[in-house]
Design a protein that fits this description.
The protein has 208 residues and is of the alpha/beta class. The chain is 33% helix and 21% strand. One of its GO terms (molecular function) is kinase activity.
């Protein structure tokens, strides 16, 4: 595999162009996957305006709004990397409220968030009707390999060394989960688009 340097602006342009080129008679469900230091949320946010300029309705969703309640996430302690990997994300809620409504024949009615993990209570968000041909841009970590029904996946890849350096000390316990993800899912190969972001200011497209 080769890594071809690309500016952040050009990366956004190329991704938004690819998304806007898809048929406009159905919804497009896009995942921007990567650990927090890779800044998947920033890339997802940057895609919104270019897609709207190209005439697409856009709904932004963060997987962090679909974590399980603390009583379930932290049942076996606050720093178990396997529970973090397997149990933190409410996959059923994410599919039911976001991904299934944007499948062919779906209602197009999406709930942008379900659970506030900081306050540990329901967000009480309002449903959003996504126009035909609209694009869901969802960011989060450890999203691939779960069978979630995305139409396009972008993975932001970091070397283990870069990830360790950029992960705050109080979150270092999550590193074994990302190592497991690399070993079991191989997200660079699994994603439709893979981008090397050891330094998010200097991304590189992974090809081959």
């Amino acid at each position: 595999m080769r890594a071809l340097p690309i500016s952040p602006e050009h990366l956004v342009e190329e991704l938004s162009k690819r998304m806007a080129a898809t048929p406009d008679d159905r919804w497009l469900r896009v995942a921007v996957d990567g650990p927090p230091p890779a800044l998947p949320g920033e890339l997802a946010d940057a895609l919104v305006d270019p897609l709207r300029v190209r005439g697409r309705d856009v709904v932004r969703v963060a997987a962090a709004g679909f974590l399980r309640p603390a009583s379930l996430r932290l049942e076996f302690g606050r720093d178990d990397p396997d529970v973090f990997y397997d149990e933190w994300l409410d996959e059923g809620g994410l599919v039911r409220e976001v991904l299934a409504p944007l499948a062919p024949g779906g209602s197009g009615k999406v709930l942008p968030s379900l659970w506030d993990s900081v306050r540990d209570r329901a967000t009480r968000a309002q449903y959003r009707q996504v126009a035909e041909g609209g694009v869901l841009v969802l960011d989060g970590a450890l999203l691939l390999g779960r069978g979630l029904p995305f139409d396009l996946t972008v993975h932001l890849s970091m070397s283990s060394g870069a990830l360790a350096r950029r992960t705050p000390g109080d979150e270092a316990w999550t590193l074994p989960a990302y190592a497991r993800y690399e070993a079991e899912v191989r997200p660079v190969a699994a994603a439709d688009v893979a981008v090397k972001v050891d330094d998010p200011r200097h991304p590189a497209l992974i090809t081959g």
